[in-house]
Amino acid sequence: MWFSPNIGAAGAVLFCATHARYEQGLELMSVITQVYASERKPGFYLYVPKDTDLTDVVPASVLQPLGTLRSALLLLLTHDKVLAQTDGKTILTAFETQGFYLQLPPPVDLLEMRYS
Known about the structure:
Layout: H1 8-23, E1 30-38, E2 45-49, H2 54-57, H3 60-66, E3 69-78, H4 88-98, E4 101-103, H5 110-115
Antiparallel strand pairs: 1-2, 1-3, 2-4
């Protein structure tokens, strides 16, 4: 292992960790992601890469039931990012396959609601 005087020990550790991840075949893609919240359906969030025209990527059959969308969040998404209901890898895979990710609200546990 080598240390460059320009990056220091912490930078060398980061370089080695990043290099090891490339050797393992893990993709280190990051995408600036725009998250929209549905005004009509609380708990529904639409994730798309920033500067994406929604009508080009998201089918009308998905957009119409959501109603008006408001910008909720802008974030840098990576494969190792952990979110409340999903992870970055799931969202980035959806970006590659369908161009967007739709997060649904968590299921309601009626028994828990009744007896809590």
